[in-house]
Amino acid sequence: TWPTVCLQGLYPGSEEGWQVYSTASDPDGRCVCTVVAPARNLCKRDPRSRQLRLLTEQVQNVSQSMEVVDLRTSRDLQYVRDSEPLLRGVDGRLHTYVANPRTLTAKGLQELKGQMSQLRPLLSVVEQYRLDLQTLATLRLELLNLSIILTAIQEEIGAYDYEELQQRVLLLETRLHSCMNKLGCGRLTAVSGPITVRASGSRFGSWMTDAMIPSSDSRVWSMDGYYKGRRVLEYRTMGDFTKGQNFVQHLLPHPWAGTGHVVYNGSLYYNKHQSNILVQYHFRSRSVLLQRSLSGAGYNNTFPYSWGGSSDIDLMADETGLWAVYTTIPNAGNIMVSRLDPRSLDVLQSWDTGFPKRSAGEAFMICGTLYVTNSHLAGAKVHFAYHTNSSTYEYTDIPFHNQYSHISMMDYNPRERALYTWNNGHQVLYNVTLFHVIRSDG
After folding, report:
1. Can you state the angle between helices 47-99 and 106-119, rounded to 10 degrees?
2. Across residues 254-270, what is the average pLDDT?
3. Quick check: helix, strand or coil at residue 197?
4. Is 299 helix (H, G, I), strand (E, B) or coil?
5. Who's near 14: CB < 8 A, 6+ residues apart?
6. Is 65 within 8 Å of 135 (Cβ atoms)?
7. Where are the alpha helices (DSSP H) in 285-373?
8. Which residues are registered as beta bridge partners of 25?
9. What per-residue confidence (pLDDT) applies to 173?
10. Where do the CATH 2.120.10 domains begin and end in the chain?
11. Which helix (H) or strand (E) holds 409?
């Protein structure tokens, strides 16, 4: 038999896309392929793409300004046309009085004054025309500048049409996401720089999108505070959340504790205030579908994360399902991880990680592995990992930039392959890099 031959290659750096792709033979002669996936949405951060988006916004602003001027001009022109008979009458009278002053009577003078009063609004119309001429001159300069910028961008990009480039970017992103979905689960190897989406709310809180795969739901939810909160804001899209617009309010029948909430398959799962009861609230029906006690779990700041805030029970979701992270008195305050049935909130299986929860800043699940940070303050890093598939742990050293120095919520979203964090009144995203090992059977 011929030996298995495996190829190995090095691809461009992370700023250009895929970092590493390599294959090697295992002891049985099978190929083992290793892929390190890149951060997502790199194309959207390209300077030329940002410049073109800015250009598009400026063109829209100019277009809207011209529409306003056009509407106002049409309205004022109609007013001038309606006033034309009155103008002709006044003009005729004035000519008559100039030609024959003796015809001017007290009654005629009074009538002339009345007609002149009716024509007085024309002065403001004429003044508006003067201002609109200045506006049009300004818009002309803006259009000229935009034309110069567009020409420069076209020269930089080359012969490709921008729409064609956008389609190619979308196609490549679709292929990338498809490939990443095929890769499935992997181990966390790096966390990107922070991406600040919005600054809103108090120092503590949580925000999220639906974590279930697959889901086309684009809504974003925000829950400000950690103590006795009941108000959940639901935004239609991430864009609306960024702008703080197009939202509806849900008033929960039971207040929450902490910030360890998660949205999974259209429902909000959260910890009921001053209890170890888990609540499932369904957004569409605006009703509580389920309540169940998490047996033995500490609550009310018995075993919180290092920052406190009633963070005893942390609910989260990853590629494999719904999880609860908590502690109990029998296991001496070490972090417990339990897999939950989302339909009944029954505990399916539990693991004692051996890591003290009060020493953890935050925690999140990726592909069945619990990752724990060593602090919620500046200088924090992912310090510990517990693998539920093998019931083993390891200490890690994965740094990330804690930009606003106080993280009170950190959760992974498997749909976006990103970490959602609430950092001192800022809603921040981090992309993650996962290490995938794909084994072939042949």
Report:
1. 170
2. 96
3. strand
4. coil
5. 38, 39, 433
6. yes
7. none
8. 31
9. 64
10. 188-436
11. strand 407-413
Q: Report helix, strand or coil for 134.
A: helix
* DSSP secondary structure letter of residue 276: S
Residue pair 440/237 in contact (Cβ under 8 Å)? The answer is no
pLDDT at residue 226 tops 60: yes
Q: Which two tokens stand for residue 268?
A: 């909000």
Token pair belonging to 353: 């990680």
pLDDT of residue 417: 87
Topology at the third CATH level for domain 188-436: Neuraminidase (2.120.10)
Separation CA 109–CA 222 (nearest Å)? 70
114-163: per-residue pLDDT in tens?
877 787 777 777 777 677 777 777 777 777 777 777 777 666 665 556 56
What H or E segment, with its residue span, contains residue 430?
strand 426-439
| Residue 19: φ, ψ to 5° | -90, -55
Per the structure block, which two tokens stand in for 1? 């038999």
Rg (CA), the chain: 33
Determine if the pTM surpasses 0.70: no
Average pLDDT over residues 34-54: 56
Q: Is the pLDDT of residue 165 over 70?
A: no
The reported pLDDT for the residue numbered 37 is 47
**Is 281 exposed, middle or buried, given 0-12, 13-18 or 19+ CB atoms closer than 10 A?**
buried
Question: Please, which residues bridge with residue 433 across strands?
Answer: 190
* 406: CB partners within 8 A, 6+ apart: 203, 307, 376, 377, 423, 424
For 182-200, how does the pLDDT look when each residue is reduced to its tens digit (9 = 90+)?
A: 566 789 999 999 999 999 9
Separation of alpha carbons 361 and 407, rounded Å: 8
The amino acid at residue 264 is Y
